[in-house]
Amino acid sequence: MNPEPLHRWLTQPRPCAQRFPYDTVIDAYQHHGKQFLPAEWTTLLRATRNRLPELPAPTGNLAAFLDVALDKPDGRYDYRTYLALPLLPIPDPDERPQPAERLLARRDHLHVGLLTDLISFELRALDNTGAPLPQLRPDPTVVTKRLRHAVRSAAPALRRLSFDIPSTDNPVTTARQVAAAATLDLHPRDRLTVRATMLPVSTVHDEWMFIRVLQTFELTFGLLAVNLTAVAAAVHARRLPAAGTRLSFAAALLRDIAPLWSLLATMQPEAFHTFRAHTDGASAIQSRAYKLIESLCRTPNPQRLNSAAYLSVPDVHARIRSGQPTIDDALDAIRADHRALAECPILADGMQQFTAAVHQWRRTHYRLAVRMLGTHRTGTGATLGTPYLLHSRDAAVFSDRDPSPVQRRPPMTATTIPPQALTASIGSRNLS
Ligand code: HEM
Question: Which of these, 121, 115, 112, lies nearest to 159 by C-alpha position?
Fold first, then answer.
């Protein structure tokens, strides 16, 4: 790896952030792994950061990229920088509200972009055409399975974006066709995003998949957090059917991403343990979006609030302390009005579906974590590991009280969920 393009860019009298040699730098990270990046590169990247104030605006993207790239030498390495989350347009309840369909379409494009990148990477390795991260390549049987699950994970979003998913008997052929079509469709803005968000710590093949799976989960968590904020506001304003419909949509979205677990389950334990040696301090316990989801449903009890669960996300902790509105609180205010609730079974349906989807998510996560770590290894977030997960696995999503005095009906059918929210959901109870 030759840092010459970076040298040249730096020695210009007035370098421009838009011309920064991202490809050269990203290639170097993927060649060495962040943990093993030669000092020469770190020095040049620090010099780049020092020059940022004198560059013509805008320099925001480059500054964010350098923050992510220099996290280890700076001693700021964590879950957000590991996954390059500041570079991903993750929906956020604090941002200006946008129409739900637009947010879903934006998420779908990026979800497909990230998974297509994974598919392309696996195909390059399979075809021996110069894929980076050569350590511990999986055998072709594993890759075939992985490609099948990657396509399944992208399928609901692909359908909403009007892609035809080819029906071939061979997962590798299907994956090739999907990747070819979806890569062409990727917006140029998203191309750089997808590329710049792959800065693995190691050169272990499976780390690529690990990063992409976590990123796609995070993207959807962000959208769920925006939705649940809207649900709380709708309940507060007594727009109960709207709240119920949005909750059903949130449940459908969570079910949609269940195949990601089967995809991740193709990870080779030896590979996981090899790159995990360098990810200490980066744990999904620091996931802001996940904790927003949990705390928007109901305020966590003081014991959980003051444990590693929330102390790892200081921003969410502060929001809760300053009275973040929750769906549960808004429901409390109207619970006394039995008639209002009785007239809105759609809300009870939504709550039931969302609760079931969250419990399914937590159980699957726990199972996979035990498969990879057992019950004695500690977590990278300084917890006891899987015993920490077991403790909260079956905790109530909303308060234990019945959400509605009406008799529960079966889950919503496709006709009662708004068309945009329709998902061809694929159940994934087995990590096969
Ligand atoms: C190999 C796969 C995985 C293993 C072994 C694993 C293991 C763990 C462990 C041990 C913890 C406890 C905190 C700590 O790190 O000390 C944890 C927390 C967590 N993990 Fe995973 N995890 C895996 C995959 C995932 C994926 C794909 C996601 C999706 C974003 C995820 C999301 C979370 C979240 C949100 C928490 C915090 C839960 C809470 O605080 O209640 N994990 N994980």
Answer: 112
What separation in Å is there between the alpha carbon of 200 and the centre of ligand 1? 18
Please name the residue whose Cα sits nearest to atom 2 of ligand 1: 369
Query: What's the gap in Å between 366 CA and the centre of ligand 1?
Result: 8
Q: How far apart are CA 261 and CA 196, in angstroms?
A: 24
CA of 280 to the centre of ligand 1 (A): 13
Low-confidence ranges of the chain (pLDDT < 70): 338, 400-432
Residue 428's pLDDT is: 32
Question: How far, in Å, CA of 238 to CA of 224, rounded?
Answer: 20
Q: Does residue 267 contact residue 230 with C-beta atoms inside 8 Å?
A: no
Residues with CB under 6 A from ligand 1: 213-214, 217, 264, 272, 283-285, 287, 290, 309, 365, 368-369, 372-373, 379-383, 385-386, 388-389, 392
Residue 342 is predicted with a pLDDT of 72
Cα 271 to ligand 1 centroid, rounded to whole Å: 17
Domains along the chain? 4-77 (no CATH), 100-273+280-421 (1.20.58.480)
Q: How far is residue 330's CA from residue 231's CA, in Å, rounded to a whole number?
A: 10
Q: For residue 350, give both structure tokens.
A: 């939504």
Q: Find tokens 């609901």 and name the residue.
A: 156
pLDDT tens readout for residues 171-182: 999 999 999 999
- How close is the Cα of 386 to the center of ligand 1, in Å? 9
> DSSP per residue over 93-115, as a string?
TTSPP--HHHHHHHHHHHHHHHH
| Closest C-alpha to ligand 1, atom 21 | 284
User: DSSP string covering 362-431, please?
Assistant: HHHHHHHHHHHHTTTSPPTTSS-SHHHHHHHHT--SS-SS-S-SSPPPPPPPGGGS-GGG--------S-
Structural tokens at position 353? 């579906």
Q: Which atom of ligand 1 is nearest to the CA of 371?
A: 5
**Cβ atoms of residues 284 and 210 within 8 Å:** no
Question: How many other C-beta atoms lie within 10 A of the C-beta of residue 410?
Answer: 8
The per-residue pLDDT for 416 is 35
Write down the pLDDT at residue 258: 98
pTM, 2 dp: 0.93
Please return the burial class of 227, using the count of CB atoms within 10 Å of its CB with bins 0-12, 13-18 and 19+. buried
